[in-house]
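Postdoc handover notes: sequence design on the structure in folder B. Input tokens:
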């Protein structure tokens, strides 16, 4: 999955051109799902920017090549650049409708709760997601940044409408195996965001001696070896790779073919 958060939250002058080029290259490399969110924007005034540029990028492709899109709601922007929450059922239904309008697709392929709202009962947020499915706004839903207990609760409410979970998971943030195992048991996809630990994480991984040794053994870069470690966590895991560079995108796709041994996986984390 190709993530677009960084580009859209810190947009360069040629944002639309770069996203369009990156989406096209991703599809050519075999990527079938693009990740965005209504809150992927630099400030309150540009809310929805990420969805708008992704829609234009996808629409520029011939229909048979257009990838699926996952977008998210529940995060808000206010007072310029501040981040907030609204996990109420009514807000999520309203946000989902607006996302469908910006992405020019109804139903949406996947709609996700961006992050649980500390001020809203989680069950209410889940029921809001179910209403989005029942109203034909989205085919399926995803939960982002949730623990195993919330996944189990949501699965009881949503049933087959729940498609997956999107949590952070990497060598630097390896505490996700309980949720990964639960996703496997429930037949859900586990979308691992920041699989390389973010921009700072990549720099740290490059200095890891154990990771460098594994990379040498497989003739790949340390970053590719780190991504292979994420993939080795289980068949339910799909990395969400956020990049603005085509070279990095090709490198991440190459990591799909790297198979670490059990000993290498254990040695790394």
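Designed sequence:
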């Amino acid at each position: 999955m190709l993530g677009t958060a960084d580009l859209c939250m810190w947009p360069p002058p040629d944002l639309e051109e770069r996203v369009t080029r990156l989406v096209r290259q991703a599809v050519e490399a075999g990527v079938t799902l693009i990740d965005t969110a209504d809150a992927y924007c630099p400030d309150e005034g540009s809310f929805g920017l990420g969805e708008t540029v992704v829609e234009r990028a996808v629409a520029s492709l011939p229909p048979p090549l257009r990838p699926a899109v996952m977008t998210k709601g529940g995060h808000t922007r206010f007072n310029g650049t501040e981040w907030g929450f609204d996990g109420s059922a009514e807000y999520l239904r309203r946000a989902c409708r607006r996302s469908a309008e910006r992405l020019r697709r109804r139903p949406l392929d996947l709609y996700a709760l961006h992050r649980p709202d500390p001020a809203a009962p989680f069950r209410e947020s889940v029921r809001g997601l179910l209403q989005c499915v029942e109203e034909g706004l989205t085919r399926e839903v995803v939960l982002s940044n949730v623990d195993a207990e919330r996944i189990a609760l949501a699965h009881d409410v949503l049933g087959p409408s729940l498609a997956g979970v999107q949590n952070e998971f990497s060598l630097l943030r390896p505490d996700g195996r309980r949720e990964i195992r639960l996703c496997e048991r429930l037949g859900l996809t586990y979308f691992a965001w920041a699989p390389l630990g973010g921009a700072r994480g990549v720099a740290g991984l490059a200095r890891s001696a154990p990771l460098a040794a594994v990379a040498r053994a497989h003739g790949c870069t340390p970053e590719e070896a780190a991504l292979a470690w994420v993939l080795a966590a289980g068949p339910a895991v799909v990395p969400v790779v956020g990049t603005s560079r085509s070279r990095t995108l090709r490198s991440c796709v190459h990591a799909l073919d790297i198979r670490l041994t059990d000993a290498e996986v254990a040695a790394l984390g």
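Context for whoever picks this up: The chain has twelve helices and ten strands. Don't rerun without checking with the PI first.
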